[in-house]
Amino acid sequence: MPTLRWRAAGLPVPFREREGGEIECAPQCPVFEHGQVAAYVARMEIVQPEALRVTRAHKAFQGCARALRSRSGTVGDLYMESFMSDKVSCFWSHSWHGRTWMKILSLMMRYNGLPSVLVGSFTALIMMGLFAGGLLPEISRSSWSHEHWSTWSLASGFIAAVITFLLWQPRQLVFFDRICINENDDDEKFASIFSLAGILKRSDKMLVLWDATWGDRLWCLFELAAFVKSKHVSEQVLLIRPTFLGPCSIVLFGGMFLVMLPLTTVPIPDPARLGDYFILIPLSGAMVFLFITGYFMVAAFRGYFRSVRALQVKLRNISFDNTRCSCCDAGHVQDGTKILCDRQIVKECVSIWFGSSEAFEDCVRSAVLETLVAGLQERIFTRGWSLSVSVPLLWAFLDLTVSHAMGGHRIVAIAQLVEGLVLWFLCVPIFADVGMFFLRRYCQQGASTIHEILENVKVELIGVACFCFVAGTWFFLCSTRPGDERHAAAALFAGVWGTLALGHFMYKVLRKHGQER
Protein backbone atom coordinates (compact mmCIF):
# COMPACT_ATOMS: atom_id res chain seq x y z
CA MET A 1 0.00 0.00 0.00
CA PRO A 2 1.77 3.19 -1.09
CA THR A 3 1.55 6.20 1.23
CA LEU A 4 1.27 8.76 -1.57
CA ARG A 5 -2.18 10.11 -2.45
CA TRP A 6 -4.00 8.36 0.38
CA ARG A 7 -5.43 11.72 1.33
CA ALA A 8 -7.35 11.72 -1.97
CA ALA A 9 -9.32 8.75 -0.67
CA GLY A 10 -10.45 10.79 2.32
CA LEU A 11 -8.44 8.92 4.93
CA PRO A 12 -7.44 10.63 8.17
CA VAL A 13 -3.70 9.94 7.86
CA PRO A 14 -1.14 12.59 8.88
CA PHE A 15 -0.18 13.98 5.45
CA ARG A 16 0.70 17.52 4.52
CA GLU A 17 0.92 19.23 1.17
CA ARG A 18 4.10 21.00 0.20
CA GLU A 19 4.40 23.85 -2.27
CA GLY A 20 3.77 22.69 -5.81
CA GLY A 21 1.15 20.16 -4.71
CA GLU A 22 3.59 17.46 -3.63
CA ILE A 23 2.30 15.32 -0.76
CA GLU A 24 4.56 13.99 1.95
CA CYS A 25 4.14 12.21 5.24
CA ALA A 26 4.08 14.50 8.25
CA PRO A 27 7.16 14.12 10.46
CA GLN A 28 5.25 13.44 13.66
CA CYS A 29 4.07 10.03 14.86
CA PRO A 30 5.28 7.71 12.08
CA VAL A 31 3.82 4.71 13.95
CA PHE A 32 0.49 6.48 14.28
CA GLU A 33 0.23 6.43 10.50
CA HIS A 34 -0.10 2.65 10.46
CA GLY A 35 -2.60 2.79 13.32
CA GLN A 36 -4.80 5.30 11.54
CA VAL A 37 -4.93 3.26 8.39
CA ALA A 38 -5.54 0.00 10.29
CA ALA A 39 -8.33 1.59 12.32
CA TYR A 40 -10.04 2.79 9.17
CA VAL A 41 -9.78 -0.57 7.36
CA ALA A 42 -10.95 -2.43 10.48
CA ARG A 43 -14.26 -0.54 10.40
CA MET A 44 -15.21 -2.69 7.40
CA GLU A 45 -16.70 0.22 5.53
CA ILE A 46 -16.74 1.09 1.86
CA VAL A 47 -14.58 4.19 1.21
CA GLN A 48 -16.72 5.25 -1.74
CA PRO A 49 -19.60 3.53 -3.57
CA GLU A 50 -17.45 2.95 -6.66
CA ALA A 51 -15.15 0.68 -4.60
CA LEU A 52 -17.77 -2.06 -4.29
CA ARG A 53 -17.67 -3.58 -7.74
CA VAL A 54 -18.39 -7.01 -9.19
CA THR A 55 -18.05 -8.77 -12.50
CA ARG A 56 -19.71 -11.68 -14.21
CA ALA A 57 -17.75 -14.88 -13.61
CA HIS A 58 -17.33 -15.55 -17.32
CA LYS A 59 -15.45 -12.27 -17.80
CA ALA A 60 -12.45 -13.88 -16.09
CA PHE A 61 -12.40 -16.59 -18.77
CA GLN A 62 -12.50 -14.30 -21.81
CA GLY A 63 -9.50 -14.10 -24.10
CA CYS A 64 -8.18 -17.48 -22.95
CA ALA A 65 -8.51 -16.32 -19.31
CA ARG A 66 -6.41 -13.20 -19.93
CA ALA A 67 -7.48 -11.69 -16.60
CA LEU A 68 -6.16 -14.71 -14.72
CA ARG A 69 -2.94 -14.88 -16.72
CA SER A 70 -2.04 -11.18 -16.88
CA ARG A 71 0.29 -9.47 -14.49
CA SER A 72 -0.07 -6.06 -12.90
CA GLY A 73 0.37 -3.32 -15.46
CA THR A 74 -0.79 -5.46 -18.39
CA VAL A 75 -4.48 -5.61 -17.59
CA GLY A 76 -5.54 -3.05 -20.20
CA ASP A 77 -9.24 -2.22 -19.92
CA LEU A 78 -10.28 -5.21 -17.79
CA TYR A 79 -11.59 -2.79 -15.17
CA MET A 80 -14.32 -1.80 -17.62
CA GLU A 81 -15.70 -5.34 -17.33
CA SER A 82 -16.77 -4.65 -13.72
CA PHE A 83 -19.67 -2.56 -12.43
CA MET A 84 -20.98 -1.18 -9.15
CA SER A 85 -23.11 -3.35 -6.89
CA ASP A 86 -24.41 -3.36 -3.33
CA LYS A 87 -23.62 -7.04 -2.74
CA VAL A 88 -21.14 -9.70 -3.85
CA SER A 89 -22.29 -13.23 -4.59
CA CYS A 90 -18.82 -14.75 -4.21
CA PHE A 91 -15.41 -13.31 -3.27
CA TRP A 92 -12.48 -15.06 -4.97
CA SER A 93 -9.50 -15.45 -2.65
CA HIS A 94 -6.38 -16.70 -4.40
CA SER A 95 -2.62 -16.40 -4.60
CA TRP A 96 -0.88 -14.97 -7.65
CA HIS A 97 2.15 -17.13 -6.91
CA GLY A 98 0.64 -20.54 -7.70
CA ARG A 99 0.30 -22.31 -11.03
CA THR A 100 -1.95 -20.15 -13.17
CA TRP A 101 -3.17 -22.88 -15.53
CA MET A 102 -4.36 -25.03 -12.61
CA LYS A 103 -6.26 -22.08 -11.15
CA ILE A 104 -7.93 -21.37 -14.51
CA LEU A 105 -9.05 -24.97 -14.97
CA SER A 106 -10.32 -25.16 -11.39
CA LEU A 107 -12.42 -22.03 -11.77
CA MET A 108 -13.81 -23.29 -15.06
CA MET A 109 -14.58 -26.62 -13.41
CA ARG A 110 -16.33 -24.81 -10.57
CA TYR A 111 -18.58 -22.73 -12.83
CA ASN A 112 -18.74 -24.70 -16.10
CA GLY A 113 -18.42 -28.28 -14.88
CA LEU A 114 -22.04 -28.99 -13.93
CA PRO A 115 -23.51 -27.30 -17.04
CA SER A 116 -21.12 -29.39 -19.15
CA VAL A 117 -22.27 -32.65 -17.58
CA LEU A 118 -25.95 -31.71 -17.88
CA VAL A 119 -25.67 -30.58 -21.51
CA GLY A 120 -23.63 -33.67 -22.39
CA SER A 121 -26.17 -35.99 -20.73
CA PHE A 122 -29.09 -34.24 -22.41
CA THR A 123 -27.33 -34.55 -25.77
CA ALA A 124 -26.66 -38.26 -25.14
CA LEU A 125 -30.36 -38.87 -24.41
CA ILE A 126 -31.40 -36.94 -27.53
CA MET A 127 -29.01 -38.99 -29.68
CA MET A 128 -30.32 -42.18 -28.09
CA GLY A 129 -33.85 -41.20 -29.11
CA LEU A 130 -32.82 -40.23 -32.63
CA PHE A 131 -31.03 -43.54 -33.10
CA ALA A 132 -34.06 -45.45 -31.80
CA GLY A 133 -36.15 -43.58 -34.36
CA GLY A 134 -33.88 -44.71 -37.17
CA LEU A 135 -32.67 -41.16 -37.90
CA LEU A 136 -28.98 -41.84 -37.31
CA PRO A 137 -26.72 -44.35 -39.06
CA GLU A 138 -25.40 -47.34 -37.16
CA ILE A 139 -21.96 -48.91 -37.07
CA SER A 140 -21.20 -52.54 -37.87
CA ARG A 141 -19.33 -54.40 -35.15
CA SER A 142 -19.41 -57.90 -36.62
CA SER A 143 -19.25 -59.68 -39.99
CA TRP A 144 -21.66 -62.40 -38.94
CA SER A 145 -24.51 -60.22 -37.68
CA HIS A 146 -26.49 -57.35 -39.15
CA GLU A 147 -27.53 -55.90 -35.80
CA HIS A 148 -27.56 -52.14 -35.36
CA TRP A 149 -24.99 -50.65 -33.00
CA SER A 150 -24.79 -47.09 -31.71
CA THR A 151 -21.92 -45.04 -30.38
CA TRP A 152 -23.76 -41.75 -30.75
CA SER A 153 -24.61 -41.16 -27.10
CA LEU A 154 -21.03 -41.55 -25.86
CA ALA A 155 -19.38 -39.58 -28.68
CA SER A 156 -21.92 -36.76 -28.88
CA GLY A 157 -22.22 -36.45 -25.11
CA PHE A 158 -18.46 -36.09 -24.78
CA ILE A 159 -18.20 -33.52 -27.59
CA ALA A 160 -21.15 -31.49 -26.25
CA ALA A 161 -19.64 -31.51 -22.74
CA VAL A 162 -16.26 -30.28 -24.00
CA ILE A 163 -17.82 -27.49 -26.08
CA THR A 164 -20.02 -26.40 -23.17
CA PHE A 165 -17.06 -26.44 -20.80
CA LEU A 166 -15.12 -24.10 -23.08
CA LEU A 167 -17.93 -21.78 -24.16
CA TRP A 168 -20.35 -21.63 -21.22
CA GLN A 169 -20.72 -18.13 -19.76
CA PRO A 170 -21.57 -18.23 -16.04
CA ARG A 171 -23.41 -15.10 -14.92
CA GLN A 172 -22.72 -15.15 -11.17
CA LEU A 173 -21.59 -11.84 -9.65
CA VAL A 174 -18.10 -12.26 -8.22
CA PHE A 175 -15.35 -10.04 -6.87
CA PHE A 176 -12.09 -10.75 -8.67
CA ASP A 177 -9.29 -8.33 -7.82
CA ARG A 178 -7.72 -8.15 -11.28
CA ILE A 179 -10.99 -6.94 -12.83
CA CYS A 180 -12.73 -5.17 -9.94
CA ILE A 181 -9.74 -3.07 -8.79
CA ASN A 182 -8.56 -0.29 -11.09
CA GLU A 183 -4.81 -0.82 -11.36
CA ASN A 184 -4.39 2.27 -13.53
CA ASP A 185 -5.85 4.84 -11.13
CA ASP A 186 -4.18 5.20 -7.72
CA ASP A 187 -7.19 6.86 -6.08
CA GLU A 188 -9.59 4.12 -7.11
CA LYS A 189 -7.06 1.40 -6.43
CA PHE A 190 -6.42 2.60 -2.87
CA ALA A 191 -10.13 3.10 -2.24
CA SER A 192 -10.71 -0.55 -3.23
CA ILE A 193 -7.87 -1.78 -1.02
CA PHE A 194 -9.15 0.20 1.98
CA SER A 195 -12.64 -1.19 1.31
CA LEU A 196 -11.46 -4.80 1.09
CA ALA A 197 -12.77 -5.76 4.52
CA GLY A 198 -16.07 -4.02 3.75
CA ILE A 199 -16.33 -5.92 0.45
CA LEU A 200 -15.79 -9.21 2.28
CA LYS A 201 -18.47 -8.23 4.80
CA ARG A 202 -20.92 -7.79 1.92
CA SER A 203 -19.98 -11.08 0.25
CA ASP A 204 -22.37 -14.01 0.53
CA LYS A 205 -19.61 -16.58 -0.04
CA MET A 206 -15.86 -16.73 -0.11
CA LEU A 207 -14.19 -19.10 -2.57
CA VAL A 208 -10.66 -20.05 -1.56
CA LEU A 209 -8.64 -21.26 -4.55
CA TRP A 210 -6.14 -23.17 -2.49
CA ASP A 211 -2.64 -24.15 -3.50
CA ALA A 212 0.58 -24.60 -1.56
CA THR A 213 1.34 -20.84 -1.77
CA TRP A 214 -2.03 -19.60 -0.46
CA GLY A 215 -1.25 -19.98 3.25
CA ASP A 216 2.09 -18.17 2.80
CA ARG A 217 0.58 -14.92 1.55
CA LEU A 218 -0.25 -12.15 4.01
CA TRP A 219 -3.27 -10.81 2.13
CA CYS A 220 -4.82 -14.26 1.77
CA LEU A 221 -4.84 -14.62 5.55
CA PHE A 222 -6.19 -11.08 5.88
CA GLU A 223 -9.10 -11.95 3.59
CA LEU A 224 -9.77 -15.05 5.66
CA ALA A 225 -9.68 -13.04 8.89
CA ALA A 226 -12.04 -10.37 7.53
CA PHE A 227 -14.53 -12.94 6.26
CA VAL A 228 -14.53 -14.92 9.52
CA LYS A 229 -14.94 -11.73 11.56
CA SER A 230 -17.72 -10.24 9.42
CA LYS A 231 -19.99 -13.29 9.48
CA HIS A 232 -21.80 -15.23 12.15
CA VAL A 233 -20.88 -18.90 12.16
CA SER A 234 -24.27 -19.83 10.69
CA GLU A 235 -23.77 -17.31 7.87
CA GLN A 236 -20.26 -18.33 6.89
CA VAL A 237 -20.12 -20.00 3.51
CA LEU A 238 -16.44 -20.73 3.08
CA LEU A 239 -15.83 -22.77 -0.07
CA ILE A 240 -12.47 -24.49 -0.36
CA ARG A 241 -11.45 -25.59 -3.83
CA PRO A 242 -7.88 -26.77 -4.45
CA THR A 243 -6.43 -25.75 -7.80
CA PHE A 244 -5.51 -29.43 -8.19
CA LEU A 245 -9.21 -30.26 -8.59
CA GLY A 246 -9.65 -28.82 -12.09
CA PRO A 247 -6.85 -30.66 -13.91
CA CYS A 248 -7.47 -33.99 -12.15
CA SER A 249 -11.22 -33.85 -12.91
CA ILE A 250 -10.58 -33.16 -16.58
CA VAL A 251 -8.06 -36.01 -16.83
CA LEU A 252 -10.43 -38.46 -15.13
CA PHE A 253 -13.35 -37.40 -17.32
CA GLY A 254 -11.30 -37.83 -20.49
CA GLY A 255 -9.87 -41.11 -19.21
CA MET A 256 -13.34 -42.49 -18.52
CA PHE A 257 -14.37 -41.60 -22.07
CA LEU A 258 -11.38 -43.47 -23.50
CA VAL A 259 -12.03 -46.49 -21.25
CA MET A 260 -15.69 -46.66 -22.34
CA LEU A 261 -15.08 -46.10 -26.06
CA PRO A 262 -13.99 -49.73 -26.78
CA LEU A 263 -17.15 -50.99 -25.06
CA THR A 264 -19.23 -49.49 -27.88
CA THR A 265 -16.80 -49.84 -30.81
CA VAL A 266 -14.68 -53.01 -30.43
CA PRO A 267 -15.64 -55.59 -33.12
CA ILE A 268 -17.72 -58.47 -31.77
CA PRO A 269 -16.26 -61.89 -32.71
CA ASP A 270 -18.26 -64.87 -33.87
CA PRO A 271 -19.95 -66.42 -30.79
CA ALA A 272 -19.09 -69.88 -32.13
CA ARG A 273 -15.46 -69.11 -31.37
CA LEU A 274 -15.54 -66.85 -28.34
CA GLY A 275 -19.11 -66.86 -27.11
CA ASP A 276 -20.15 -63.99 -24.85
CA TYR A 277 -16.63 -63.63 -23.47
CA PHE A 278 -15.80 -60.95 -26.05
CA ILE A 279 -16.60 -58.41 -23.31
CA LEU A 280 -13.24 -59.34 -21.78
CA ILE A 281 -11.53 -57.60 -24.70
CA PRO A 282 -12.65 -54.04 -23.79
CA LEU A 283 -12.36 -54.84 -20.07
CA SER A 284 -8.76 -55.99 -20.52
CA GLY A 285 -7.99 -52.90 -22.58
CA ALA A 286 -9.51 -50.73 -19.85
CA MET A 287 -7.40 -52.41 -17.18
CA VAL A 288 -4.19 -51.92 -19.20
CA PHE A 289 -5.06 -48.27 -19.79
CA LEU A 290 -5.81 -47.72 -16.10
CA PHE A 291 -2.60 -49.46 -15.05
CA ILE A 292 -0.46 -47.27 -17.32
CA THR A 293 -2.13 -43.93 -16.59
CA GLY A 294 -3.11 -44.83 -13.04
CA TYR A 295 0.45 -44.59 -11.79
CA PHE A 296 0.66 -40.90 -12.65
CA MET A 297 -2.76 -40.18 -11.16
CA VAL A 298 -1.80 -41.99 -7.95
CA ALA A 299 1.43 -39.99 -7.74
CA ALA A 300 -0.51 -36.73 -8.28
CA PHE A 301 -3.19 -37.53 -5.68
CA ARG A 302 -0.63 -38.65 -3.10
CA GLY A 303 1.26 -35.40 -3.66
CA TYR A 304 -1.96 -33.46 -3.15
CA PHE A 305 -2.79 -35.14 0.15
CA ARG A 306 0.80 -34.58 1.27
CA SER A 307 0.37 -30.87 0.62
CA VAL A 308 -2.81 -30.88 2.74
CA ARG A 309 -0.86 -32.45 5.60
CA ALA A 310 1.81 -29.80 5.14
CA LEU A 311 -0.92 -27.15 5.39
CA GLN A 312 -2.00 -28.61 8.74
CA VAL A 313 1.54 -28.26 10.07
CA LYS A 314 1.82 -24.74 8.63
CA LEU A 315 -1.46 -23.51 10.13
CA ARG A 316 -0.64 -25.01 13.53
CA ASN A 317 2.44 -22.79 13.53
CA ILE A 318 0.82 -19.86 11.77
CA SER A 319 2.20 -16.39 12.39
CA PHE A 320 1.75 -13.15 10.47
CA ASP A 321 5.46 -12.60 10.92
CA ASN A 322 6.19 -15.70 8.81
CA THR A 323 3.92 -14.82 5.90
CA ARG A 324 5.17 -13.14 2.76
CA CYS A 325 3.99 -9.81 1.37
CA SER A 326 5.17 -7.80 -1.61
CA CYS A 327 6.09 -4.67 0.34
CA CYS A 328 8.55 -6.53 2.58
CA ASP A 329 10.00 -8.37 -0.42
CA ALA A 330 10.60 -4.98 -2.07
CA GLY A 331 12.20 -3.45 1.04
CA HIS A 332 9.24 -1.09 1.55
CA VAL A 333 10.21 0.94 -1.49
CA GLN A 334 8.11 1.32 -4.63
CA ASP A 335 9.27 3.37 -7.62
CA GLY A 336 11.86 5.00 -5.38
CA THR A 337 9.22 6.04 -2.84
CA LYS A 338 9.01 4.86 0.76
CA ILE A 339 5.85 2.82 1.40
CA LEU A 340 4.17 1.56 4.53
CA CYS A 341 4.39 -2.04 5.68
CA ASP A 342 1.29 -4.07 4.84
CA ARG A 343 2.20 -6.53 7.57
CA GLN A 344 1.93 -3.90 10.31
CA ILE A 345 -1.39 -2.64 9.01
CA VAL A 346 -2.86 -6.14 8.70
CA LYS A 347 -1.66 -7.15 12.17
CA GLU A 348 -3.24 -4.04 13.69
CA CYS A 349 -6.52 -4.67 11.82
CA VAL A 350 -6.64 -8.24 13.07
CA SER A 351 -5.81 -7.06 16.60
CA ILE A 352 -8.79 -4.70 16.49
CA TRP A 353 -11.09 -7.51 15.28
CA PHE A 354 -9.90 -10.36 17.51
CA GLY A 355 -8.20 -8.56 20.41
CA SER A 356 -4.72 -9.51 19.21
CA SER A 357 -3.07 -11.13 16.23
CA GLU A 358 -2.29 -14.10 18.50
CA ALA A 359 -6.02 -14.54 19.17
CA PHE A 360 -6.69 -14.78 15.43
CA GLU A 361 -3.81 -17.22 15.05
CA ASP A 362 -5.40 -19.35 17.79
CA CYS A 363 -8.71 -19.17 15.92
CA VAL A 364 -6.98 -20.36 12.74
CA ARG A 365 -5.34 -23.26 14.61
CA SER A 366 -8.71 -24.45 15.87
CA ALA A 367 -11.92 -23.80 13.93
CA VAL A 368 -10.44 -22.49 10.68
CA LEU A 369 -7.86 -25.28 10.48
CA GLU A 370 -10.57 -27.89 10.92
CA THR A 371 -12.75 -26.27 8.24
CA LEU A 372 -9.92 -25.93 5.74
CA VAL A 373 -8.49 -29.42 6.19
CA ALA A 374 -11.89 -31.13 6.26
CA GLY A 375 -12.83 -29.25 3.11
CA LEU A 376 -9.63 -30.19 1.30
CA GLN A 377 -9.72 -33.84 2.33
CA GLU A 378 -13.35 -34.91 2.58
CA ARG A 379 -15.64 -32.29 1.02
CA ILE A 380 -13.91 -32.04 -2.33
CA PHE A 381 -14.04 -35.55 -3.77
CA THR A 382 -17.73 -36.03 -3.07
CA ARG A 383 -20.31 -38.37 -4.53
CA GLY A 384 -21.43 -35.62 -6.91
CA TRP A 385 -17.86 -35.13 -8.10
CA SER A 386 -17.31 -38.85 -8.75
CA LEU A 387 -20.60 -39.12 -10.65
CA SER A 388 -19.70 -36.09 -12.78
CA VAL A 389 -16.26 -37.29 -13.86
CA SER A 390 -17.57 -40.81 -14.57
CA VAL A 391 -20.71 -39.85 -16.52
CA PRO A 392 -19.25 -41.20 -19.84
CA LEU A 393 -19.85 -44.66 -18.33
CA LEU A 394 -23.58 -43.94 -18.28
CA TRP A 395 -23.49 -42.58 -21.84
CA ALA A 396 -21.80 -45.77 -23.07
CA PHE A 397 -24.53 -47.92 -21.52
CA LEU A 398 -27.16 -45.75 -23.19
CA ASP A 399 -25.56 -46.81 -26.49
CA LEU A 400 -25.60 -50.49 -25.47
CA THR A 401 -29.22 -50.20 -24.34
CA VAL A 402 -30.55 -48.68 -27.55
CA SER A 403 -28.42 -51.03 -29.67
CA HIS A 404 -29.93 -54.13 -28.07
CA ALA A 405 -33.40 -52.61 -28.25
CA MET A 406 -33.05 -51.96 -31.98
CA GLY A 407 -31.82 -55.52 -32.43
CA GLY A 408 -34.99 -56.88 -30.87
CA HIS A 409 -33.40 -57.93 -27.56
CA ARG A 410 -35.68 -55.97 -25.27
CA ILE A 411 -34.89 -57.94 -22.11
CA VAL A 412 -31.16 -57.49 -22.63
CA ALA A 413 -31.70 -53.79 -23.35
CA ILE A 414 -33.55 -53.21 -20.08
CA ALA A 415 -30.94 -55.26 -18.21
CA GLN A 416 -28.09 -53.23 -19.72
CA LEU A 417 -29.75 -49.97 -18.67
CA VAL A 418 -30.11 -51.25 -15.09
CA GLU A 419 -26.51 -52.47 -15.09
CA GLY A 420 -25.25 -49.13 -16.36
CA LEU A 421 -27.16 -47.21 -13.70
CA VAL A 422 -25.88 -49.51 -10.95
CA LEU A 423 -22.27 -49.26 -12.15
CA TRP A 424 -22.45 -45.47 -12.43
CA PHE A 425 -24.66 -44.54 -9.47
CA LEU A 426 -23.57 -47.16 -6.91
CA CYS A 427 -20.25 -48.73 -7.86
CA VAL A 428 -18.30 -45.63 -8.91
CA PRO A 429 -18.87 -43.60 -5.68
CA ILE A 430 -17.84 -46.58 -3.53
CA PHE A 431 -14.79 -47.18 -5.71
CA ALA A 432 -13.87 -43.47 -5.45
CA ASP A 433 -14.27 -43.37 -1.65
CA VAL A 434 -12.15 -46.50 -1.18
CA GLY A 435 -9.50 -45.11 -3.50
CA MET A 436 -9.37 -41.77 -1.66
CA PHE A 437 -9.09 -43.58 1.66
CA PHE A 438 -5.96 -45.44 0.59
CA LEU A 439 -4.50 -42.37 -1.15
CA ARG A 440 -4.85 -40.36 2.06
CA ARG A 441 -3.50 -43.18 4.21
CA TYR A 442 -0.43 -43.85 2.08
CA CYS A 443 0.46 -40.30 1.04
CA GLN A 444 3.63 -40.10 3.13
CA GLN A 445 6.69 -39.24 1.05
CA GLY A 446 8.94 -42.22 0.42
CA ALA A 447 12.41 -42.22 1.99
CA SER A 448 13.98 -42.56 -1.46
CA THR A 449 12.96 -42.43 -5.10
CA ILE A 450 12.68 -46.23 -5.25
CA HIS A 451 10.56 -46.30 -2.12
CA GLU A 452 8.31 -43.56 -3.51
CA ILE A 453 7.80 -45.51 -6.74
CA LEU A 454 6.95 -48.64 -4.76
CA GLU A 455 4.41 -46.69 -2.70
CA ASN A 456 2.76 -45.44 -5.89
CA VAL A 457 2.65 -48.95 -7.31
CA LYS A 458 1.22 -50.34 -4.06
CA VAL A 459 -1.68 -47.90 -4.05
CA GLU A 460 -2.18 -48.41 -7.79
CA LEU A 461 -2.44 -52.18 -7.32
CA ILE A 462 -5.09 -51.63 -4.66
CA GLY A 463 -7.02 -49.55 -7.19
CA VAL A 464 -6.63 -52.19 -9.89
CA ALA A 465 -7.88 -54.84 -7.44
CA CYS A 466 -10.96 -52.71 -6.70
CA PHE A 467 -11.58 -52.25 -10.43
CA CYS A 468 -11.28 -56.00 -10.99
CA PHE A 469 -13.80 -56.61 -8.20
CA VAL A 470 -16.34 -54.19 -9.71
CA ALA A 471 -15.80 -55.42 -13.27
CA GLY A 472 -15.74 -59.06 -12.11
CA THR A 473 -19.09 -58.89 -10.36
CA TRP A 474 -20.64 -57.33 -13.45
CA PHE A 475 -19.02 -59.88 -15.78
CA PHE A 476 -19.89 -63.04 -13.84
CA LEU A 477 -23.32 -61.94 -12.60
CA CYS A 478 -24.54 -60.34 -15.83
CA SER A 479 -22.43 -60.55 -18.99
CA THR A 480 -22.12 -64.34 -19.08
CA ARG A 481 -25.86 -64.92 -18.66
CA PRO A 482 -28.05 -65.85 -21.64
CA GLY A 483 -30.57 -63.33 -22.87
CA ASP A 484 -33.64 -64.83 -21.18
CA GLU A 485 -31.88 -64.79 -17.79
CA ARG A 486 -30.39 -61.34 -18.15
CA HIS A 487 -33.17 -59.46 -16.34
CA ALA A 488 -32.81 -61.69 -13.25
CA ALA A 489 -29.03 -61.31 -13.39
CA ALA A 490 -29.36 -57.52 -13.56
CA ALA A 491 -31.71 -57.59 -10.55
CA LEU A 492 -29.20 -59.71 -8.60
CA PHE A 493 -26.38 -57.35 -9.58
CA ALA A 494 -28.42 -54.36 -8.42
CA GLY A 495 -29.27 -56.11 -5.16
CA VAL A 496 -25.64 -56.95 -4.36
CA TRP A 497 -24.35 -53.46 -5.01
CA GLY A 498 -27.39 -51.83 -3.42
CA THR A 499 -26.60 -53.72 -0.22
CA LEU A 500 -22.93 -52.69 -0.39
CA ALA A 501 -23.93 -49.07 -1.06
CA LEU A 502 -26.29 -49.08 1.94
CA GLY A 503 -23.55 -50.49 4.17
CA HIS A 504 -21.13 -47.89 2.85
CA PHE A 505 -23.64 -45.11 3.53
CA MET A 506 -24.26 -46.30 7.10
CA TYR A 507 -20.51 -46.49 7.72
CA LYS A 508 -20.09 -42.86 6.61
CA VAL A 509 -22.99 -41.70 8.79
CA LEU A 510 -21.64 -43.48 11.87
CA ARG A 511 -18.12 -42.19 11.18
CA LYS A 512 -19.37 -38.61 10.85
CA HIS A 513 -21.42 -38.98 14.04
CA GLY A 514 -18.35 -40.27 15.88
CA GLN A 515 -16.24 -37.34 14.67
CA GLU A 516 -18.86 -34.81 15.80
CA ARG A 517 -18.91 -36.38 19.27
From TrEMBL:
TM spans (from-to): 113-137, 149-168, 244-265, 277-301, 385-405, 411-439, 459-477, 489-507
Keywords: Membrane, Transmembrane, Transmembrane helix
Source taxon at top rank: Eukaryota
Designated name of the protein: Solute carrier family 40 protein
Source organism of this protein record: Durusdinium trenchii
